[in-house]
Design brief:
Length: about 400
């Protein structure tokens, strides 16, 4: 009898141990699932590119709040850490290392500008951390074989220059002049515009550069008067883009001025004033969302983002904030599908198809880490100080 009781007690003990052991992993998993998901962002919030970084920062904060109010990602809140690189490439590297080493982020959004974005590529590649840039240069994601960990949401300079050249040819323009910022953004635009012009039989009869901090570009513009250019293309961001626009009108150049998509924010209009009237640019659809036909596949996404942003910040949204929205939302989708493993997030980003964002409908692939084409852009003219869709 004693042996039977002992055997029974042993069986009960084994059963209890099994139950406790069986429950433990489940409890650990539950606890782990409540931990925040750490996402980092490095943005040009101060310095020359602040007109890009500020609306991006504000957008990310808004979207993170909205997401967490709805329960986060798969029940886990998002911890968003945003660092200011001061529009400086060295500061960008220091910031991204801090996010990786100290914050242990699953992924990184940034930077706002091409130069600062390119500065971070080596670091995220060596550390195998997925990064989504919000800048334009094609070099950020090309060649894709060397940019395995890097994606971006802004239309590439290659896409923009193709749109510009096609528009110019449709207006009978065969000779253009080019002025560009002396930085990574401007140089990328210069290279791609030259390629697009040559491929389409358009001649660039004059090209010159200026510094992002220059306060006067009349000398370069005056030289254009002595050429047979039929239009001038400006590749810059505010404030220099606004200054060159004012100078253009002040010296009496009467040929069309076509800007890059780097001016698509209220800051450009405010700084250029009435001198901005008549300029033309290819740009994402956000700034003319209300003028789009209801059949446009992006319209509802654009209107919702614009309404939310304006309600929260009492100012119109910019294309740059839209790039930030796309970076955040693409990352959220990837994490929903893949979890927080960095490699799996990267793989999920590369497989995203037909994702309707603010900047366009994204179709990523192993060969294309931008996923946008010319259909993501429209031609816009400034009329009476407002962005007006060219139909």
């Amino acid at each position: 009898m004693t042996k039977k009781i002992s055997l029974l007690l042993i069986c009960i003990a084994v059963l209890l141990a099994f139950v406790v052991t069986g429950c433990s992993p489940k409890q650990d998993t539950t606890a782990k699932s409540s931990e925040p998901i750490s996402i980092g962002a490095v943005l040009d919030i101060s310095g020359p590119a602040s007109s890009l970084g500020i609306p991006e920062r504000d957008t990310l904060l808004m979207l993170a709040d909205q997401l967490n109010a709805k329960g986060g990602i798969n029940g886990r809140p998002v911890k968003l850490t945003i660092l200011d690189n001061k529009s400086d490439e060295t500061e960008s590297v220091l910031a991204v290392k801090k996010l990786i080493d100290q914050e242990k982020v699953s992924a990184i959004i940034g930077c706002s500008a091409s130069g600062t974005s390119l500065a971070m590529v080596d670091t995220v590649t060596k550390e195998s951390v997925p990064m989504i840039s919000l800048a334009a240069s094609s070099k950020i994601v090309e060649p894709a074989s060397d940019r395995k960990w890097v994606f971006k949401t802004a239309q590439s300079d290659k896409t923009v220059t193709g749109k510009i050249i096609k528009y110019a040819k449709s207006k009978g323009i065969e000779r253009i002049a080019l002025l560009y910022m002396n930085n990574a953004y401007g140089d990328g635009g210069r290279q791609e515009l030259n390629k697009a012009a040559e491929a389409n039989g358009v001649k660039i009869v004059f090209q010159d550069k200026f510094e992002a901090t220059d306060k006067e570009m009349s000398a370069q513009l005056t030289k254009i008067k002595g050429t047979d250019a039929q239009a001038v293309v400006i590749w810059a961001i505010p404030p220099s883009a606004s200054i060159v626009t004012r100078n253009y009108k002040e010296i009496g150049l009467n040929i069309p001025m076509i800007h890059s998509h780097g001016i698509a924010n209220q800051s450009f209009l405010d700084l250029a004033g009435d001198k901005a009237n008549g300029i033309i640019l290819p740009v994402g659809k956000l700034i003319v969302a209300g003028q789009l036909p209801d059949t446009d596949p992006q319209k509802q996404t654009l209107v919702t983002y614009a309404k939310d942003y304006a309600a929260k910040y009492n100012t119109p949204p910019s294309a740059f904030g839209g790039h930030g929205a796309d970076g955040f939302n693409l990352l959220v989708q990837a994490i929903k599908e893949a979890g927080t493993d960095r490699g799996k997030i990267r793989d999920a980003l590369e497989k995203i198809k037909n994702f309707t964002g603010v900047s366009g409908v994204f179709n990523m692939s192993e060969q294309d880490h931008n996923g946008l084409d010319e259909s993501s852009m429209v031609m816009v003219e400034v009329k009476d100080g407002k962005w007006t869709l060219i139909k």
